[in-house]
Amino acid sequence: MMTATKKRLKIVAAASFSLLLVVYLYRAISASTVGMPGGVGVVGRLSGPIEEEQQGQWPPTEDAIQRSLQNAYDAHNSLIKEQRAELQRTKEQLAQLEEQIRSLQTSTPRKYPKVKYLNYKNRKRILITGGAGFVGSHLVDDLMIQGHEVIVVDNFFTGRKRNVAHWLGHENFELIHHDIVNPLFIEIDEIYHLASPASPPHYMYNPVKTIKTNTMGTINVLGLAKRVMAKVLIASTSEVYGDPTVHPQPETYWGHVNPIGPRACYDEGKRVSETLSYAYAKQEKVQVRVARIFNTYGPRMHMNDGRVVSNFILQALRNETITVYGNGRQTRSFQYVSDLVDGMIALMASNYTQPVNLGNPVEQSIEEFAQIIKQLVGGPSPIKQTKAVEDDPQRRKPDITRARHYLKWEPKVPLERGLRQTISYFRNELARSDRFQESSNKYFDSPDLQRSRP
Ligand SMILES: NC(=O)c1ccc[n+]([C@@H]2O[C@H](COP(=O)([O-])OP(=O)(O)OC[C@H]3O[C@@H](n4cnc5c(N)ncnc54)[C@H](O)[C@@H]3O)[C@@H](O)[C@H]2O)c1
């Protein structure tokens, strides 16, 4: 009997000891895992409230376990939130770094495009005013590749350094930030005078400055040409014909321009520019060439210049409505920029001194043009007519008999091929501006700036 009681007592003592050991071990493990990352930390957090609320009570009540579980769940969620925010921040930083690498790659090219070697007899020093603009930058490319020394003068009103960045640092290239309204002293053999805003929103933005650029700027250019005996090519425009009553427009047509309309600052500015050129030619024996340029399009044209090509392409790429001003029956003819550049270089090299139309005589109604762009971009954009624009010319088509005869020049690039190039340029530009947009509100501190902060 005695041995049986002893045996039971031994069993009870052993059981109590085991229970105490289990409780001790559980608490020891819980205490040591508080604050550890991941799931282990949760165990630690679970034990906290139980210990606080259930001091001395074991096992914990169901209520306490519920609360602890909820706390653990909340802690887990906030941890995930923090990690997601961290991931997002890292992604944004990565995108910014990628953009910085891209812009570094474009702004500091390791290799320049190949240029021909010309000996000193054939190599010319050529000044291009407005050379950082759309047409000017393509002209720079061609003349550089031919092996000439090219100096660009630009006030960057509508031009961009990026357009000529691939030549920066080249021994044959120089970029000068200068407003052509002010005189310029420089030694050169030829001048292509392109400095002037070309699109209506740009030239109407500051009409007085547009007139000054086309009058005082042209006087400065012609004065320089006179001093150094350089040949000058003036970039005039089909706008000198105004809203033409003759169709297609030959160079002998004097034009139909409203001298006080919204476009007059440009149209009349260019007409004075031509007048000045022939006055300097007659009086000062300056060799002048006058190119009357018709609508030109291509890569590097301004995204928001408000003209029909950029408007339609952007609207189509953004799946917006393609807006046709007026009834869409007004016509335009569009030349690709490389054709224009070929024509300008041929005109400069020629002995022909009268104005020459440079444009593509293939004529399209604006309505047809909208259809072509819609089809090439391939989006769902509807085409809608809207209010006509004041003084918008009804018909525009160059007569290029002179250019064909004297320059042996005519446009080569078909509309569809040129438009595909231009659409692809605009698509890339849109993607680029979207990338910038995404990161536009975020800054990277330089290490120095960070150190200077408290
Ligand atoms: N693109 C066309 O369809 C078209 C048609 C007819 C005539 N043109 C003529 O061709 C020339 C080039 O046109 P674009 O389309 O390349 O235009 P653009 O606006 O891209 O280029 C003009 C350049 O001239 C610069 N500029 C403007 N004012 C200046 C000033 N006061 N001093 C120095 N630089 C100045 C601008 O910053 C810009 O780089 C212009 O003279 C324009 O009138 C162009």
Automatic annotation (TrEMBL):
GO biological process, one term: UDP-D-xylose biosynthetic process
GO molecular function annotations of the record: NAD+ binding; UDP-glucuronate decarboxylase activity
Pfam families xrefs: GDP_Man_Dehyd
Pathway annotation: Nucleotide-sugar biosynthesis; UDP-alpha-D-xylose biosynthesis; UDP-alpha-D-xylose from UDP-alpha-D-glucuronate: step 1/1
EC number(s) per entry: 4.1.1.35
Cofactor list: NAD(+)
Domain of life according to the entry: Eukaryota
Topology in the lipid bilayer: Single-pass type II membrane protein
Name this polypeptide is given: UDP-glucuronic acid decarboxylase 1
SUPFAM superfamilies listed in its UniProt record: NAD(P)-binding Rossmann-fold domains
Reaction(s) catalysed by this chain's protein: UDP-alpha-D-glucuronate + H(+) = UDP-alpha-D-xylose + CO2
Residue span, NAD(P)-binding domain: 127-422
